Every structure is written in C-alpha cells, then in structure tokens.
Amino acid sequence: MKLSWQRQTVYPRHRFATSRGGLDEVETVVVRFEQDGIVGYGDIVPSALYGQTLEAAESVLQSCRELLDDDPFALESIVARLIARHDDQRATITGVESALYDWCGKKLGVPVWRMLGLDPPQIRTTFTIGVADPDLTRVKIDEALAAGYEALKIKVGVETDEQTLELIRSKFDGPLYLDANEAWTPAEAEERIRFLAQYRPTLIEQPLKRTDWEHLRGLRDLDVAPIFVDEDCERPADVVRLRDHVHGINIKLTKCGGIREALRMITLARGFGLQVMAGCFVSSSLAIAPAMQFASLLDHADLDGYLLLADDPWTGIACEGSVLSLGGQPGLGVVASPAAAIE
Fold first, then answer.
1. Over the stretch 107-125, which tens digit does the pLDDT of each residue have?
2. Which of 31, 34, 305, 314 could staple 280 via S-S, CB 3.0–4.6 A?
3. 98 and 291 in contact (C-beta within 8 Å)?
4. 115-338: which CATH number, 3.40.50.620, 3.40.50.2300, 3.30.2270.10, 3.20.20.120?
5. Which residues contact 137 (CB under 8 A, 6 or more apart)?
6. Which fold does the domain 2-110 belong to in CATH?
7. 28-78 residue pLDDT tens
C-alpha cells in the first residue's frame, strides 16, 4: 500500500470573482493511492473559508498513512478514523476517500456509482457567471450561451447586481440561480430578495452570513424563490439545525468530507423534505467526479468548476449543453490527460 501526493495548479479561463474577492489560479493536491498494481486518484481542494490550506492538507496526508486499513474497501471505518483525527480538514479527507473509491472501483472493474447502487449519473449543471465588469460579463454570457448552457448561476451581493442581471436577462430567459455568498445582513437580505424577484430567480443561495442563520426562516417565508444554504451547511448535523429555516441545502465535498458524508446529508435532507444541490469550487474534473457519482439523487447541480478552466488536466465527464454525465468507466471515471504530468 502506498499513499503519495503532488500539487497541481489549474487556471480559470477568466478571472473568477464573488462578493468576497477573486482568483486567477487554483492550487490543489492530487492524492495517489496504489496497491496491487492499481492506482486510485483523488483531489484535495482546500478552502480558507473552512480553515483549510495546502500545507495543512499535506501535513494531514503524512499522518493518514497510519490511519488507512490494509483493506481499502473498509471505507466506513477508514473515513470515521480520519474524521475523528482530522475533523477540521475535511477537504483532505475527501481527497483520500476519493482516491480509495477510485481504487476500489478499478479493482472491481465497476464505476463508483454502481458500487453505491445508484443510477448512471446524468444531471443538468448551472454555469457560473462570477462578478465582473460589464464588458467581461457580456463576454462570459455570450460564451456560456454559445456553448449551449441552459441554466446560469450568477454571483450577486455587490453594487453592480442590477446592471449585471439586466444584462443577463436581456440575453437569457432560462433558469437563473443567484448566489450572494453571505453578502447581506438580515435587513438588507429582505430588501434585496424582494428586489430580485423581478429577475425570476430559480433559487437564492446563502443570502446571510453564517452567524445569522436563524433569520433564514423569514427570508424563506417571503416566497420569492426557494432559499438554499451553502456556507451555513457544512456537515450532517447542520441539516438538522437548518431543517425548518430553508428550502434546500448545497453540499460540497470540500466542506463535508466526501461521498459517504454527502450521502448522510442527502438522507437527512430528504427526511426533512428539503431539496438538495451539489456544488463545487473552481477545480479540475478529478474534484468534480466524486460528486457526480451521486448525481442521480440531486434536485440541482452546480458542478461546473472544471468547465470554468482554460484547460482541464483530467478527462472523462461528458458535457452536452448543460447536461453532465458519466459512463461505465471503472472507479471515478476520469483519467489524467497526457499533458497533466500526473505521476
């Protein structure tokens, strides 16, 4: 059994920005698990929002070796040990779990989604238009529509919201997902959501800061659009806490700790009558592939992180218009491109 890793840098086609700031490149850690001549891969996409860094990820990986089992199929106990030891570094746990799932699927010769007993993954994703000046926004919209994307996600919560949304609605009449990334106070959020009703949003995501979550119920009851939480909902316990305050949750593997924890969140959400979305950060398709395994369980998907890149170093997720799908390739279903320099 051998666990190794290397850093990988990917670049968005255009600068990607939200109400919090922007980025021109993303550095991740590719995890490599090898046993019996078979190699499984996973990707760690740390987020400073959750106290995660590349250095912390590499430190955790050093200690992970002793926490892995001789049996890579013992995923439940392996993930439980990782969470018990490194609860605050769930992006790293996701990367390790992903590599193990990839290995297990390749060992059995089946895709991970089949191992989980799920239907073939196929779902429409949104395509994200980040915060930008009008000229770049226009370029992004034109590129998205020319590529056939049928649902757009717009980063809001800045002074140019009205200008951006007017521009978008002048060109696009389809589903519009609005994501504020914690931009508003409770009083501001009520006013802004009433104003945003004219743009016919499909849903509004994370309008409040995480500390203001108890005010979400009032926003939900405005009945302008379904209210979803992202930053507020990291782990299974958060689904229980938020069950009477929102219409739905956005699951990201970086914050919850991988496929197994995501499935627990989905089960809880369904029990409480909540809708479920899976989201992502700007990243390669290696980081998107784990969430694709349970795509058949989702109401909404925002899994466009790899579609925002100038060049994706991994291949395997098919995209036709807005529809993402995975075939029957074993494991996670993605492979490194020749130019990716993945060992």
1. 999 999 999 999 999 999 9
2. 305
3. no
4. 3.20.20.120
5. 129, 164, 167, 168
6. Enolase-like; domain 1 (3.30.390)
7. 999 999 999 999 999 999 999 899 999 999 999 998 887 887 899 999 999
